[in-house]
Every structure is written in structure tokens, then in C-alpha cells.
């Protein structure tokens, strides 16, 4: 068996759901082993939490600076680091670890500011290290299948893309109650000015490009915060134009009661249409002109190998969010293994990378510009 | 029993599905009786079709001009006329019949041109006759219930409205095959320049205003015909702003494979969200913040009287499109009965009227203007 | 145009939902015209209700005896009668009208007693008159399509049939509150001993035979009334065996909270499976081994002509309960028209008839016997 | 952090999906660590597979006998063993390990024969070791919630339970093609005579008792193998009677095209009904008499703590099969931890145990007896 990837984590302490998701996802396929971490900005908490997780005491660090400096002088240092702090810290930390020769797995969005993303990218592109961004929804098997059949022309020329990512947890002014997640995610300093665009919109944007294979060309955005006194946008109505003439609509909201994590993608081409919803992710609807719609099930023998290799269990046994997330980790592991031998990624490994991360930041920035500028079109380019 | 309303029909000959729908809907509750008609622009066909429908021979007319002139001199003339011709003829015919003192039930949209709609409206407002426009989707019981609870504040202040009306029947260039419905609906002369906006977009627009109780304030539209060589738009991406600060997104398409008649309305307020889909019209999802979503079923004892009076059968026995359509006819009948006594409409009678028709035309016009003008906002007002 | 069928109605007075359903269904396609009736056992109410319906006064009868005797001596008598009384009266009335040379459309089940059904059938088979039983669920277009493709072998040899018809409206002792429908339907004298079997189980039984094309061979039933003090069964757990080796399970309940009118049919063969649900009747799921499941939509161009001729409007415009019911009436009309010319039914006309009615009574009787006899198998034969 | 539970595995070699599921489930919450195994009846394969899994060479055993004898003399032996062999070997192996003082986690059903289960149970009850049976579907959060609210009387007195577990993967004679899973599961020697009853029926049976809290009293079964020449039953139609007067229907099939892993449970009481489906496990429908049905979502703040502690991520982020399975492992871990301190299980730990396993065997046996005896009722008792 290949040696497991020993990794560390920055952020993701007590109560931070996304940290725990990363840890479970990393563990699922047995490629990763958490051995070090700086889990909180509070040094005491950071160390205590590492101990709870079962790390050896000397690798529970007070903060990420200590973590880098001490890991780097160990005989066996961590091979990768997972960064799950608030957005504004991502790249500063990433740079430290990359410079130490450690692969980076970074939560989205890259940063709170586009300029920082650009300058970081210039640096990071020079390193030979892996930099992954966890746009995890691209890891679902049927998302992979959709991408595969689109790339093979099965739905024809794409005409319109309908994307939405709606939640309701910020329908009231939760940040006032001290709810930790709400506080930093609605703080422009920590999360950036994008609000819901940064928090979930980038997921939807990435997914639409990933599946369609199209590049965005222009964006027009009408942003608003519906909750009085909120400092970031909580609802976005967006029009898109893609390469090749396709158009899109994107709705992002965190104030839509009844939507828990309503990420939904529909792509319509000249021959067929595809519909997928994250809350019921084991099915993909394929409607070919002139035929009755088909319900493609995850795990079905009729699916592409692109989908098959992203699933663990037979059809009818539902997989969920963590499994999709773990697929990203599985692919990162393949890249790390290749990297050990000085090879580039195996073909078909599609985890989101630095350029996807930069594209997400450009998306946020272009949307903000359009909104400031009376909702005019803003040209931009994705990955 | 009250004397039935004897009515005539213009248009709606062989193969015109909407004509038959009107006839069944009118018949359903036994308030209307078809006694006269000019069903086709071809006089022979017109007469033959009337005979097939069982009309007495002397009331199967060669054309609508003859119909008006002869009906008007009969001892007992028709009390109402249903106009289901291509759009560009609606108002010319309507004017003839209104002048003859006959109530008019007109299919949507009012006309192929806004100017015509305006000048007609100026005339029609002077008459004391009923003028109804069959935005039939407003007749569904759960649509009425949604409107009712919104008006009572149950979902709080409205924030965002997501509307879509997607079909796929024009995904290929059907008009080239001589398909009659496709031919006139894609002919700017007969249908107007709006294309899918006129054909189905006005339904969606009307529904969103009807249910939300909000007035539109501005529109921004990105229109396209994806089928090469088509003369009208077959896809529309639209942003809306409403009175009171609410915003909306509206997608209209006739080129989205897998969508048969996908009219769907979602309205989110500060307290709750509502979701309804025309293809599964017997259920309304109500999601109140802090509570589990509820599935309200048509016919349930828990619904408002506004919904209850629009349904005929117990819950679990599905009603459909024709029943919703017939509800509009039922309300028109109540208005006609009131009119016989010189009274105004009974309270709670909500069938779409002249002003709704004009608003639909303004919607089309404003969308076209926005599209021509680099997708800028165009101010406009609904009913 | 063919002369409409003038018909009368017995039963179906104020508040009887099924009477109104029959009237709307008969009216929908313009083949029938209600001209006479005895609507209530209370003669005054009977006459009043006829007047409300707009019948001419001399054809609003005090009771069905008067109705027969007077109609029979009119120059133009009714051509058909619709019987929608409580079950125990059906056949007595039917006999009167058949003897008068009038076609009979009878609600299900035939009777409250099997013996009465047998002796009536012996008589009725001798007449040349039409006798239809309104197992209306067989009128849904996708039910027809399911039957058609099964008869063509598309799902292979049938193995198991899963049928259920669940409601919840009798979950509490509604009959004690004086609720009229509950009172007679739970009274063994009026409804028979079958309870839920008579009221809704016969629908499910008929549907399973109609669609599968199989004959029942044996039944095993475990019946119960869960509501204390109720005089008839409100829940039935039934096993079935069919000709050709297929087996079935049938659940009937009127005490299952959350089920409004949950009639659902699933048939599995050696090649494919079919699933249909009455509450969402515009879709049929077809799962062929080795292929992804397909969702067949009513009105789709891919359906059989057997389905196509049972629908009025394009796909995506939902049809419902009344439309399915009206399809039965449409077929009866075709039979009446043929009868006028002394011809037998046109091919493909499939409305439920006397033998279906008798089979339903045998089903109830066999189930009761099995239940009394310690749930042993009881042999019986359907139509 | 508590010391992880080092465990071994017997069976579950290459291509055995359930072995991999156990390993992922055990790993998910970081309580278990696989350190030893005998994965195949072929000793070479057994060792090779252990190596692939990354076990140290000296703990990759040729067979389970060697495994027990060598583990038992190690300084640090495994604390638990997971048995995922064909059914007939479960208890022989379990006995070996229990005698060695090792906790046992055994796949279902207990055995291929009831007698063996009884004699094993007599032995096992004497040990102080944990014996868990992986009826994993009881680990889903909403299954726990259903159990919780039923136990609190929220749905009233239970009347009828509708259970089904349908698959289609054995619709054709797959065992003839050498398909390994099909071969042993249709071999009476390895799997027992129950066929689909053993393979999946026991899951459904356990789930219905677990959620309802009722004890079975009698069973009546109509069994069949529809695939010609198959040696075990592939379809079962079953009636049940429970303590307290409730009744049930259970359908089990592996020949129902379109059903992948269709485990579905519906429980109806005097006050409310509950519906849950394994293929869409993140939602539970609760229909209370007089109220609109509610859709309870996993992770919602409205759920019981019994559900909350069985979930890892926020609502709207779907969990699936592996997460539910891992919940069983999480509870077993809690029991092992308690056992280390000589304590009994913490309250609320509900993983299926020896008595559940025995009940499953009695269920199979009683069903077979009923079927042999002309489908008469057979009395039996569950846990």
C-alpha cells in the first residue's frame, strides 16, 4: 500500500462544520492522515482541540506561524496542509506553507480580495506544489457524468444555463446573535464584499463552468442585502454570457425560506437538457429531444467511467455531500502520489485548482463592479 | 337556474388546441353555451367546423365581420364572444364586438403591438362591457391560496420572486415544417416581436404580479433566438424590480429540452417562502422560517376560501389545466350575471381584465426596449 | 354533428360529490345532456335540486319510480340513466331502467350483495342495452398506455403486482358526526359488508386486472376495522394470485393519515417495471432492465394511440380526475352512437361493463370469505 | 483522545462491496482502526488483499483460524472483529472470536439456519462481549427520529405498517454468469433457504420493529422464485400481525425492475402517519390528521436529539448510506468504550444486537414455515 499523506490543518476548530467535513472527507478513502494542526486563532483552544482530535501533543500548535516553522524542521514534515480559516487569511497562510514546500488544499473562495488572489497566483504558479481549492460540488459522480456527456456532444450546442444556489439560514439577522459562522461570513473584512457571492455563489459559478466546459465572457449583476443593516449582499440576481454564445442566469440567495442548500444546475443544449440538484444528488435527469426523459441513477451500469470512478457503493444506496467532498480528496491524493514521483497529474483528475480559485475571485469582482455600475455588463474571463 | 350565457367564438378552428380548451372550460360549469362562431380565416372551413361543433347552420359564419353584422340583428344575439385568433387580430375583432354591445373574452397577449393595445384600451374603458383576458394560470386554486396568504402578510415582506416558464417544443425550427402553431407564433406580423415573451412570458409575468400583489417598476432583459434563422426570440433572461423593494428573476424559454410547460413560481418573503409548479398544480409548498416545510394540498380543509371556491372535487383527486381555465370562465360568468342586473363584479372575482392585458403588452415592450438598449433597465408600470 | 345523448340521473343530489363529477364528466366532451332526474330520496329535495340544475320542471321527479314511469311515456325519453345512489339501490333501479329500454351508467360497486349482482347480471345480459360501471380510474391516458404496452409484451411476463388505495378521511369516527358520505358508506345495509373494499378496493382491483390483462385466481384477505365501533372494515391487507403465475399484494385503507386518494399501481415483469400514481397521473415510470428509467408524460408524441385518444391537451398541461372520468363517458357515448345504428362497440372502446361490475362483487365476497375463514385462500375468477 | 478500537475483519475481500462499506463506515468517525484480517477463503488472496489495505504483513492472515490463534497470543490483540463472510460462516467464526474475548460485529442475517442461531445465542449470551448485527438502516437519522416520535405517542396507536424492500438486480439469472455476489446469495448452503428474505427481508423486518417499537406476533408468507431454476425465493408477499393489534404488509423482491434498493417504510397511527424511503433518506414525511403534511429534513433544528446526534453536517447537505452505517459503528464504539470500563451501554445507544439477529432468523424461519404450510399464519416472537 502507498504511504498515506500526512497532513495538517489550519482553522476548523470546535464548531466549525467545514473543518470536520474536510477531516472526514480526507479520511474516507484512507489516503490522508491528520497529524498536525493550528485550529483556532486562540492558541489555547487550538491546542486543546488538536488533543481532542488525537494528535500528538507536539503537533498541536498555538498558531499557523509556529506550525510552519516547527513542521519544517521535523524529520518528517506534513506533506499537505488544509486551510479552512475565514477567507481573508487563506492566501497568507497558503503562501507560508507553499514556501515550506507543502502542498495546499484551500477552502473557497481564495481570498477576500481579488488583488491578493492575483499576486498570490503569480507566486504560486512558480512553485511545483499542488494547490487545490475545494469547490467540492464538482466531486459528485453525476456532476462528473454530466460534464462527460456534454464534452462528448450529447446535448448538442449549449444554449442556456440555469444555475441557482439558495439557502435560508441568513433570512434573519443571525450575525447579531453572535452566531460564529454568521458573524465572519457577513463581515466584509473577513469574508470580502461579496457576501453570498463569496460564500456560495462561487460554488455555483464554478459548477456551471466545470460541467458545461464553457468559459464565461460577461456578467451583469443585481445585488442586494434584504436584511436591514447587513454589511454584505445576501441575494444576487445575475445574468451571464459564455463562450460560444450560450447565456445563463444565476440566482444566489441566503434569504430564501425553504431552501437549505439548494444548489441546482440545469443546462440546455440543441439536442438535450440536463438537470441536477445537490439536495437529491443521486439522480440526473437527461431529456433528449424526441425521447422521454431519463432518470440516470448514480452507480448505474449505464454511466460513464468518469462517474463510475467517483462512487463507492451500488446504485440505490445513496451517497451524499461527504462522499462528493471525499472524491476531491481522492483526486488530490492521486496528484500527490504522482508528485512524489515527479510526475504530473494522472489524466482525468479534475479537482479544482489555483486557476479555478482565481476565476472565482474574478467572478465576485466582476459582479460587484456590474452592480456598482448600474448593472451594466462587465467583461471577464474564467479559467 | 340562471339563464346560460350564449356565446360565440372567433378563431379556434380545427387543430387549434386553445380553441377547444376554451370551449371545454366554458362548458365545464354549465354557465356558457356556444351558439355561434367564425372559426377560421377560410370561410368554408369556418362554416364546416361550426357544423361539426353542432351549431345551428345560420350561426356558422364565414368570417367575424359577417358574424357581428348578423348577430347584432338577431332577436337574441350572443351575450359574449371568445377571441382565439392569432394575436394581431385580437383587438380589431374585440372592438367590433364591444361596439355591438357584446362582452369580450380575449386570449393573451392583447395584441401584437403596444400602441394598438393602448388605443384599444382607451376605447374599451368607455364601454360598460366586460373585457376578460385569459391569463388562465391565475385560475388554479393553489395560486389563489398563495395570493390570499401573501395578501394577509403570512410570508412577510416579499424579497425575491423567481419565475420561470420553460418549454421545449420550439427547440428545432418547427416553423419550417409548416407546423401551423409554430408558423404563426414565430411570425412577428401575427404574434408580435416578443416571441416567447408574448406567447408564454406574459403568463409568467401576470402570474407573478397576481400572486405577489406587487407592481413591477423596472425590467432588464437579455433576449435571444437560439434557433438559427428564427424571426422572434425563443429565450429570455430577465431581471425585475417591484414596488416595495422586491426583486425578481424571470426565465422564459421555448428551447429548453425536457420542459413541456414548465411554469413555476417561487416567492420568498421575510417570514416564509412559497413554491408552486404548474405541472404538479395540486400542491403548494409553504416554508415558514423555523418550521418544517408544509405541503398544502388542493381541496384540503386547511386552505382559504379563496382556494376552496376554485375547486370542484375532494383532495387527492387531481385537478388540472382545464379546471383552472374553467375557474376563469366561472368568474367571468359571475361578472356577466352581475352585469345583467347592472351591478359591478362580486367581491373576490379576480379574472384578468383589460388592465392586465395592457400590462402584459407593456411588459413585452419594455423587455424589447431593454434588450435593444444594451440590456439597461427600462422603467414601466403594471396594472 | 351527432345528436347528443339526453340522459337522466338518479341520486347525486346536493352535497354528493360524485353526482357532480358525473355531470361534469358527461358534459366535458359535449356528448351528453342532462334532461331529467330524481336526485334525492326526499322528493321535495329531489325536485328542488333538479330545478337548480336547470332541468325543465316536468322532468324533475319525486323519485326514480315516477321517473321511469313518466319518462317511458314521453315522446322523447332519456336515452341513458346515470345511477349514483348508495350501493344497495343500484341494481333495483338499473333493472327498472333497462326494462324501459334505457342504457345504464352505474356507479361502483354494483351492489351491496353478490347474490343480487348475480341475479341482476343474468337479467341484464339478455337485454341489448349498454350497462357501464364507472371504474373511472381506467380512463386515465397513462393507464391506457400501460395496458397497451403490457399487452404488447413490452414488460415481459408479469411477476408481481403491487396495488394500493389508501385514504385517511375515515381515520376518526366521522360517521358519528352525521357526515352524510361517511354515514352511508359505513352502513352495511347501504354499502355492503365490504367497507373500504367496496368503496375503494374494487377500484384498485379493477385497475390491476384492467392494466395487467390478467385474471385473478385466488385471494387471501386480512380485514379489520381500526376505528372502534365501526360497522365495516376500514383496512384490508390482501394477497392475490393471477392467471399465468403472477402474484399480487393489495392494500386498501381509509385510515392512513397523509393519504388523500392514494391509488397507486406498480407492475413488474421479466423485462420491465411500470409505476403509476393517481395523485400525479400525468406521468408513468417505465424501467426496462439494463436501461435508465424513463418518465413517460401524458401527451408525449412517444405514447401509443390508446393513450393519445384519451387526452385533450398538450403535454405539460396537466389533466386530472375529471378528465379521466370524462374519458369513460366519451367511450360510453361511442357505444351509444353505435347502438343507435344497431352496431356493437367500436374496437378499442374499453369502458368497464357489467362483467367488470360482477367481478368487483366477487372480489369483495371472496375477500370477506377468506377473512372469515382464518385468512385462507379463496378461489375466484374475475371478468 | 480515547484510544481507537483496533479491529480485524473476516471476509470482505476484493470485490465484496459490503466489506469496503464496513471499513469506510468504521473509519468515518475515527473510532476504529483496521489492523488485521482474513479477507478471503483463498489464503493467498487473503494475504494479498490485507497488504493492499496497508495492514502490517504479520496481521494479514491466511484464514480466520490462524487469525484467532495468532491474534490471541499477541501482546496487543484486536479488540473487535467484523464478520462479513457468506451467512453460513458467521456464527462459527463469531464463536471463535468471542471465546477469544473479542467483541463481534456481524453482518446480517446471523446465519443460514435458525437452529445454529439459537445454539449460538445460548452461548453468546453468557459472554460479556459485545455482539452487534449490522442492520444498518436503523442508523439513519430520520429513522431514529421516527422511532423517537412514535415512542412519544405522536402518531397515536399504530394501526398499519407498510414495509417494502425491492431490488431488481436478480431479475435475470445472474448466478449463472458467475457473478460472485449472485452465486453465494442464491445458494441455500451459503445463504440459507430464505433467499431475498435473508438477504434484504430481514433488514425490512428489523426496521419495522425498530421504528414502530412493536413486537411481531404472527406472519403469513407467500414466497416464490420467479426466475426459473433459481434455488431460493426471489419474491415474498407477507402479512404481519404485531403486538397491540397493529397489522402489516411486507413486500420483498429482487426481481422488480426499476427498484435499485427500494427500502420504504410507512407507519400509520390513529393520529398521524409517517413515510420514509431509503433512497431519499434525508426527508421524513409526517402527516398529522387535520394538518398539512410536513417534510422533516435531516439536520433541521426541529428534530429530536435522537436524530441530531446521528448526523454530522447541516441540513441540505445530503447524507447517505455510508453515514447511516457509520452511525451504527459510532454507537458500537460507545459500547466498547463503556465496556473497557466495565460499564454497560450508555442510554440511547441502539445498535442492533444478538437478540435482533435471532429475531431476524425467526422471521425467516416463520415465513418459510407459513409458505410450506399453504400460507397459514405462523406465530412467532421478535426481540
Describe this structure in words.
Four copies of one chain form a homotetramer. Chain A starts with a strand and ends with a strand. The first copy, chain A, folds into two domains: 5-129, 3-Layer(aba) Sandwich (Rossmann fold); 141-314 and 359-379, Dihydrodipicolinate Reductase, domain 2 (2-Layer Sandwich). Chain A has 383 residues and is an alpha/beta fold. In chain A, helix 1 crosses helix 11 and helix 5 (114-126) packs antiparallel against helix 12 (354-372). In chain A, the strands form two sheets. Chain A has a nine-stranded mixed sheet. A five-stranded parallel sheet of chain A has the order 2-1-3-4-5, with helices on both faces. Helix content of chain A is 35%, strand content 22%. Chains in contact: A-B, A-C, A-D, B-C, B-D, C-D. At the C-D interface, strand 6, strand 7, strand 8, strand 9 and strand 10 of C face strand 6, strand 7, strand 8, strand 9 and strand 10 of D.
